[in-house]
Amino acid sequence: MTIIGTPRRRVDGRAKVTGQTRFADDVTLPRMVHCKLLRSTMPHARIVQIDASRALTRPGVLLILTGRDFPISYGILPVSQDEHALAVDRVRFVGDPNAAIIARDELTAFEALDDIVVDYEPLRTFADPLESLAHPEPRIHEYGDSGNIHKSVSLRFGDVEQAFADADRVFDDTFFYQGNTHLPIEQHAAVAAKDPDGKLVLWSSTQTPHYVHRALAKALAMPAAHIRVIATPNGGGFGGKSDPFNHELVVSKAALVLDRPVKICLTREEVFYCHRGRHPVSMRFRTGVKKDGTITGLHVQTLLDGGAYGSYGVASTFYTGALQTVTYHIPTYHFEGCRVFTNKPPCGPKRGHGTPQSRFGQEIQLDKIAESLAIDPADLRLRIVERPDTLTANYLRVGTIGLAECIRRVTKASGWKQTFGKLKRGRGVGLACSSYLSGAGLPIYYNDMPHSGVQLKLDRSGGVTAFCGATEIGQGSDDVLVACVAEILGIEPLDIRAVTGDTDLTPVDLGSYSSRVTLMMGNAAIQAAERARDYLAEAVSKKLSVPKERLVFADRRVFDTESPDTGVSFSEAVCLAEALFGTIGSTGSYTPPRSAARFKGGGVGPSPTYSYSAAVVEVEVDAATGWVHVPRVWIAHDIGRALNPTLVRGQIEGSVYMAIGEALMEEQTFRRLPPKLSRALVHKFPSMLEYKSPTTLDMPEVFTELVEHPDPRGPFGAKEVGQGPLLPVMPAVANAVYDAIGVRIDEVPITPEKILKALDAKAAGKAPRYGPPRFPAVPYPEPLDVPPPWDGGDGKARTSKLEGRSEKVEGRNEAVRR
Amino acid sequence: MSHNVQLALIVNGEPTEVAFAPYKTLLEVLREDLSLCGTKHGCELGECGACAVLLDGQPVLSCLVLGVECEGRRVLTVEGLVKDGRLHPLQETFADLGAAQCGYCTPGFLVTAKGLLDENPKPTRDEIREALAGCLCRCTGYQQIFEAVEAAVERASR
């Protein structure tokens, strides 16, 4: 192979370094006007009246829209259609949009916001999950499991209590993972226009044009065929641009009404209100172990602070319990998860989606277990790594596992045996591991169709155009698409034009989320390229009288492997094929393999294959100030095969970076305004200055090890790399802090204040720890019992008494049953 | 509505006249009135560094500079880095070494790095970190950016 596996400049590299990448806010059209959203100043209130009459008289104001213009709800998950483009009768958090102004310029629209008078009737504010559990009324939404509980689940695989009885030790720990946000440098922006033929076109910084397309069709009650969504390259996504957003619907509607292009670009403050970031999660881990470290059973309980809307939250809830078994062998497993609504910006999918929180808890607890059993933390993990080609207790089919090699590589590179437990006070090292999906095995909405499609158009000139709905969010999806096609056809990446993320032009790809694009689009691209190659091979074979099997595609030529001088150029091959077959095009598509889970809730977690990571983090902790400095991180990632090692390294280093932010400083938190104001619950710091994120000065040196054993399910053997490497870093930081100063910080962010409190506790003879004292009482439902495979289970739930419960993620398992 | 002001400045080496509303920042003038959309914005409050340009050779945040302050001054944006159709060495190394992922913060990093190299042609890693500390990147973890700046230094000294 000449392209795959070689470090290369990405195909869109030149555009990015010359400032020519056209982001959504760079789209400007003739007669374009501008939109601003009026956002709620109340955290929870009924809208009595919106008086926009004065705003309408302001010169330059063209249109005002309110909730009345958007009677139809939408939402990313079929089970959570709980959003309106503009609040209809209720606002649910400070920042919830309730009116829109479209004016000839942005300043006029902005100034006219002050002219709108909204009469609110305040309702009880729910600031915290415990308040939401304690008070079922008033309900933030009129749907969900009960009161202000959005989703509550209990899945039990085997007899965990018996497993605890059989264990030598049972560890019981609680953790808290604070919420944080994606903070892409690009603020969300969108431009909508009415095409000359009356159809709608929307350019938007979205990771999921296909889902935006569906949401627009539904909420605007328009035929989807009359809507075109173009995902502009995203200036960073990280999950924060994966939902259909209010502003996308608003400018679409406005463009249709005004018959003029309408643009919106959110302010940084508004991006904090869009959020959909990391859920704050309280966790309890009970783990039974034998003296040798073998796990007999695990009971995980989570409580998620969901914020004001559903978003991906049902999936997020299941993800807090899905992947523990994929990492380590856990013979019996009980997961209970609960997501509640609160009056804060909605949480959703941020890099790692629901799994970093519980990964944090599990990896710290393993560190505690290792210490108690006097086993090296790396050795402990090597003993319990899940076995390859396994069906886990919760029916996830795991194929290749490079985790043991990741642990060996990262401990060797970091000098773990010489440093762990041996550095002077104030310096320490910590280790943690993780796994992640290479694409969700099931789509967001139930259907039998492919998850990714690729079309190729081959031109007589020798050029190839590759069409795919995948969205370039910086991760390099255009480069993966082009590289896969170029490798098969034996041409150069820049001979190929990538047309992506356009619902009119490109076949559906579900979007840039769940680390699915490389695997799914890559496989579709390979299939399309192989089909195109077949046409060309047949035509060249005829022309040269060489058997097809002997033809090689390389160096922009098609030639006889036994006589390399006998051949034609690639463009001649296309001409020959066109003469023989007519216009040359091909398609490829990818559908993930069937999941083994047959129980409700089993739709979250299955993936064609899983990636693995192990990290060692070094810290320096100043016991006087509590300040934590991270000089070095070693990380090994089981990627199957690196398609473009330059981009792979970038994903890993970028994951470590984001993880360091989450571990040490990033938090999305809220406060009440003083009583003399409104006492409204507001975001503490919706600005980039006060929301701390790591700068060049905070970034540790990162040493990356790639573990490459091609996975048969991945394109050229590749697995994901965009999210997995983030996961082990936060717990590894916490474990390193313990190694350095002997206190456990069982929550993120690990701030100086928490370290000093833990040191004070230690000095006072109390538990040397900072973290939640206990896990709250959560009304989980009766468990759904699913016997694990080794207990003769077939993936179905044993009891049927809960069949009638409302559960629509479960509806997704219809796909599985067929 | 305020009336436009008109002024002359030198943008990427070209004498340029532009008329714009007087409240506009240099960022807005570049993007909206001169169609130079290579310069980006991430906060418009001087917090992220995405809008950095060189003003008379010095890195500034164009969201914090008023357009009317720029009469007669030299502004260099990312569009001005390409000379005679050839990429600047920093652009070459940023593209080759993965220093641009989503590419949104890249123009700010590029001009800030150019400002550094113009003053200090052989910076150490720590000097590079220090010079770029006002630019936020959420994709790369900065390491490939440092390496790209170092590689550009190396190419220039070859």
> In terms of per-residue confidence, which ranges of chain A show pLDDT below 50 for 5 or more consecutive residues?
802-818
Structure class of chain B: alpha+beta
From the alpha carbons, calculate the radius of gyration of chain B and give it in angstroms. Answer: 16 Å
What's the CATH topology name of the largest domain in chain A?
Aldehyde Oxidoreductase, domain 4
So, the CATH homologous superfamily of the largest domain in chain A? Aldehyde oxidase/xanthine dehydrogenase, molybdopterin binding domain
Main pleated sheet of chain A: 7 strands, mixed
Shape of chain B: globular
The overall number of domains of chain A is 3
CATH homologous superfamily grouping of the largest domain in chain B: Beta-grasp domain
Beta-sheet strand percentage of chain B? 15-25%
Explained architecture:
The complex is a heterodimer of chains A (818) and B (158). Chain A is 26% helix and 24% strand. The two termini of chain A are 39 Å apart. A seven-stranded mixed beta sheet of chain A has the order 3-5-1-12-9-10-11. Chain A is built from 21 helices and 34 strands. Chain A is globular and about 85 Å long. Residues 802-818 of chain A have low confidence and may be disordered. With 818 residues, chain A is α+β, with helices and mostly antiparallel strands. In chain A, helix 11 (355-372) runs parallel beside helix 19 (729-741), helix 16 (517-544) packs across helix 17 and helix 18 packs across helix 19 (729-741). The longest helix of chain A is centred in the middle third of the chain and has 28 residues, at 517-544. Chain A folds into three domains: 31-123 and 185-236 and 241-274, Aldehyde oxidase/xanthine dehydrogenase, a/b hammerhead (Aldehyde Oxidoreductase, domain 3, Alpha-Beta Complex), CATH 3.90.1170; 153-180 and 277-442 and 600-770, Aldehyde Oxidoreductase, domain 4 (2-Layer Sandwich), CATH 3.30.365.10; 450-590, 2-Layer Sandwich (Aldehyde Oxidoreductase, domain 4). Chain B is of the alpha+beta class and 158 residues long. Chain B folds into two domains: 5-78, Roll (Ubiquitin-like (UB roll)), CATH 3.10.20.30; 89-157, Orthogonal Bundle (DNA polymerase, domain 1). In chain B, 33% of the residues lie in helices and 16% in strands. Chain B has five helices and five strands; from the N terminus they run E-E-H-E-E-E-H-H-H-H. Chain B has helices at residues 26-33, 89-96, 106-119, 125-131, 143-157; strands spanning 5-11, 14-20, 52-55, 58-61, 74-76. In chain B, strands 2-1-5-3-4 form a five-stranded mixed beta sheet, with helices on both faces. In chain B, strand 1 and strand 2 form a beta hairpin. The radius of gyration of chain B is 16 Å and the shape is globular. At the A-B interface, helix 1 and helix 18 of A face helix 2, helix 3, helix 4 and helix 5 of B.
